[in-house]
Amino acid sequence: MAPEIMRYNGEQEYTEKDANVQDVALKMLEPVEPGLGARVSSVSAYKAAYTKWQRDPLQNACRAYCTCRQELNVLASLQHSHITALMGVCPRPLALLVELAPLGALNHLLNNYRRSGARLRLSVIQDTASQVAKALEYLHEHRIIYRDLKCENVLTWRFPPPFSTITDVLVKLGDYGISRSSFPSGGAKGFGGTE
Q1: Is 148 one of the annotated active-site residues of the chain?
Q2: pLDDT tens readout for residues 28-40
Q3: Count of CA atoms in the C-beta half-sphere (13 A) of 77
Q4: For the whole prediction, is pTM greater than 0.85?
Q5: Residues 7, 15 contacting (CB under 8 angstroms)
Q6: Domain residue ranges in the chain
Q7: Which of 18, 148, 168, 175 is catalytic?
Q8: Measuring CA to CA, which residue among 131, 138, 134, 136 is closest to residue 147?
Q9: If 0-12 CB within 10 Å is exposed, 13-18 middle and 19+ buried, where does residue 1 land?
Q10: Which of 30, 51, 64, 130 is the most exposed place for a label (fewest CB within 10 A)?
């Protein structure tokens, strides 16, 4: 049975049974069995997450719900060319649906460069840094402190492969689970950063 999808149109939530097909990424907030034919690493990760979840299911469900609400509060109000867009919410299993980054996270692309011995062109570095800076500037204008800037959270739509002459770059910030709204006085609650 397919999960029921709750979509968000910027003003209200609604259920959509016959939606247009779009590629989205699921940010799973609770363990979901990977299914037949899954990689061994996916099955191992699921088993570890499920075991942890079962130790205290109520606490983990509450944590997943709070993370979902936090990320929804941030993403629902944002629209920027360098910030991943919220596409919807799946209540069972609990997951956020966000734009799919076709090239994945920046850290994987940088690892490809490292393994191949290729060097990034200066224009690619500048464009990437500029796009991330524009996203952060937009967040700060909306009184949101990002708190988790790392290559794993910079998602890529366009990025040149090693040894390419192409310099076209499109990156967006993702993962707003620990972002916080700042107070008018400039402060915010909590600590930031993940490993």
Answers
A1: yes
A2: 666 667 677 777 7
A3: 13
A4: no
A5: yes
A6: 6-99, 106-181
A7: 148
A8: 136
A9: exposed
A10: 51
